[in-house]
Design brief:
2 copies of one chain form a homodimer. Chain A is an alpha+beta fold and 204 residues long. The first copy, chain A, has helices spanning 82-91, 93-119, 122-139, 154-161, 165-177, 193-200; strands spanning 3-8, 13-15, 23-29, 32-37, 43-49, 54-55, 68-71, 75-81, 147-149, 181-184, 187-190. The first copy, chain A, is built from 6 helices and 11 strands. The interface between A and B is large, with 40 and 39 residues. The structure holds a DNA duplex (30 and 30 nucleotides).
Chain lengths: 204, 204
DNA sequence: CGCAGATTTGACAGCCATCAAGGTACGTGG
DNA sequence: CCACGTACCTTGATGGCTGTCAAATCTGCG
């Protein structure tokens, strides 16, 4: 059939670089991340996939995946076949417009991350990551004010920001000790929003 | 009219972040770069635009530019209006497919750069930049073997790789002293391809 | 309980940034 | 043709941010 649901457990790959994939996915529940795996074991995380996000959006037009997607938590997502989506893209201007929006957003997020990695310090990158995830969750109605569900391991934060896990740890501690944030079981609470934003918010 | 040519001199902006822009451009002659300008004067270069490249490809669907484009050399490019392009995208499957290829390539290049900035050392980033520009020029029939037209200033290399101009200079020198490359007036020649690729080629 | 993985912490090293100074190339105007 | 200024390239000294290595503690889970 042209549409289906699937479950994947935490730490399992949803799709892998090198695969031929004719499916577009929408995350329904849970978090995942898209990444590139290098031969020496290092990884670069390209983006975090939140519920409501479309991923592998380019699959209808370039089946060969150049990045992998792995579940952070247990996830549930919906898959659409390539052929059906392409038909809809041509036939329905609304679908077409929605799909282009997705591609544009994806490149926009990638550009933000590029600025982070190229221009900003470790402290700024980490704070910015937390704030940008908060913003995205708020857009989806998932974040209530200061408290943020946050299932990312420090290793993953390191692989997004291009730092080492130890260094991420040091700054998370310094944020806590400065009274900027509080960390709980898979959650973060922003205590001093003004100051935290001063550090992490990108002023173009 | 829906199509036109334009000339811009070196160091002039072709378009600027914040602008509303309903045009898609194709570079006909010369080099340019797409970048984000931060308020403190730092810049992050997102991509280099070579002859034959389409840029501001997302303009038909999100007019507001989030990055600027500036000419490196004197350039000549062609502009297409938003409305006309959107019509063609819907009407002509070949145009549609070409356009999606462009978006896919653009995100792919952005991802490569993310891996560079997140995972790799200064030496590796600089070598990789030169090699990737060589590859792109060869695809366009512009690079003859080892000799590469190369109008990038060291400051620009620094702004792509997230380094300082001084540091770029040190590694360019070390490449020269190791007999890996030769630099001329706005050109680079790769003398020891095997070794240079060992440093700069990304082994996923 | 025992194990594997994650977090935390410290000591130390190294890569890269910063600052400073001088040299070089190129365009401009006299 | 030459003087001159600006931007770029080059080089050195120094410092700091971040990585590496190591070990202890904590956590979740079987």
């Amino acid at each position: 059939d042209w549409q289906f649901h699937r479950h994947v457990r935490a730490r399992q790959n949803i799709c892998t670089a090198g695969d031929q994939l004719n499916l577009v996915f929408i995350m329904c529940e849970g978090w995942a991340f898209r990444f590139v795996q290098l031969s020496d074991g290092r990884r670069q995380v390209l983006s975090i996939v939140l519920p409501g996000d479309v991923f592998t959006a380019t699959a209808p037009f370039k089946a060969k995946r150049r990045s992998s997607v792995q579940a952070i938590t247990d996830v549930r997502f919906c898959g659409y076949s390539r052929g059906r989506l392409k038909e809809n893209l041509i036939a329905d201007p609304d679908v077409f417009s929605a799909w282009t929006d997705i591609l544009v957003d994806e490149t926009s997020e990638a550009n933000h991350l590029l600025v982070d990695l190229g221009c900003r310090s470790a402290e700024e990158r980490i704070a910015h990551l937390i704030l940008s995830l908060r913003r995205r969750m708020k857009q989806r109605g998932m974040a209530v004010d200061a408290f943020i569900p946050f299932p990312l391991r420090q290793r993953l934060i390191a692989e997004i920001t291009g730092l080492t896990p130890e260094h991420v740890n040091r700054f998370m501690r310094s944020f806590r000790e400065a009274g900027l944030i509080e960390t709980g079981k898979k959650s973060v609470t922003i205590l001093n929003r003004a100051e935290f934003r001063r550090i992490g918010e990108l002023r173009a």
